[in-house]
Amino acid sequence: MKEFKSFYKEVAGNEGGKCRYNTRLDTYGCGCQHDCSYCYAKSLLNFRNLWDAKEPSVADIGKIERRIAKIPKGSIVRLGGMTDCFQPLEGQEHVTREVIRLLNQYGIGYLIVTKSDMVCEYMHILDKEKAHIQISTTWIPCEKAVSTRRRIAAIEALHAEGFDVAVRLSPYVPQFVDFEQLNSIRCNKIIVEFLRVNHWIKQWLPLDYSEWTVKHAGYQHLPLEKKIEYLAKVTGFDEVSVCEDVTEHYEYWRECVNHDKNDCCNLRK
Ligand code: SF4
User: Is 258 in contact with 241 (CB distance < 8 Å)?
Assistant: First the structure.
């Protein structure tokens, strides 16, 4: 098993400047067994031979604890910002489970972003005050992560138990979404992240990209008018937020759409 050494990162630049939770702690790296066709991390690492979806590298829990000990109490770190911290490997390695225990112990909050329902197996260790969970659903065909039905069941189970959980429609590609299913999920919050594409993602997820006409920070995006039109199809949630990369679009969502202007992840305070 290879060791994943860059497990802790404070993301800067265009993305880090907009994201309130830009401290990432990744328990697995240099690959993700979900191997999604639209994966931004894969598109950045694969061509440099730094992506191994079959055998991702595993972070060392001793080193993680030494790093966690230096994080100020009350901070919030993002688990699964680069790769899924609940990919199948977690079933053998349990590094994410140990990290959650450490974060609880050191008084640090955590935002879990995942496409797995394995997070529900850890309900007994998730702290209701510190844990914030976003489960991604996409309806994009041929995903290797657990089925949409299982992800929705996990969202509803966490919501019913009183956890701070949101549907993460990410990436949002309206052509694929079952809106009836989406809008009837029993959860009050949704975070929407529109698909952005680069050369690699276009190859792995062949689609008609003629609408993706806005270029920003190395990616092509839908124009704001199209995003507004597509967002109107998302109707089943009391609290809507958009996770956005394009600066002008980000400002529009913040002023006109996001439930919490100061927090596009809309975490429970
Ligand atoms: S689950 Fe996330 S990190 Fe893993 S391959 Fe899919 S998009 Fe990439």
Answer: yes
Candidates 192, 170, 204, 168; CA nearest to 44 is 204
How much is the average pLDDT of 249-266? 97
Q: Which residues pair with 197 in a beta bridge?
A: 220
Rounded to two decimals, the pTM is 0.96
Q: Check residue 168 and give its pLDDT.
A: 98
Ranges of H-type helices in 83-185:
90-93, 95-106, 148-160, 179-183
List, chain by chain if needed, residues with CB within 6 Å of any ligand 1 atom: 32, 34-36, 39, 41-42, 83-84, 115, 145
Cα 40 to ligand 1 centroid, rounded to whole Å: 8
Nearest to 183 by CA among 229, 257, 235: 235
Q: What is the pLDDT of residue 15?
A: 67
Cα(37) to centroid(ligand 1), Å: 9
pLDDT tens for 30-63 read: 999 999 999 999 999 998 899 999 999 999 999 9
What structural domains and CATH numbers belong to the chain? 8-189 (3.80.30)
Residue nearest to atom 3 of ligand 1 (CA): 83
Q: How do residues 154-163 score in pLDDT, each as one tens digit? A: 999 999 999 9
Percent of the chain with pLDDT over 90: 94
Closest-CA residue, ligand 1 atom 5, reads 35
Alpha carbon separation from 243 to 4, 33, 109, 196, 215 (Å, rounded): 27, 24, 20, 12, 17
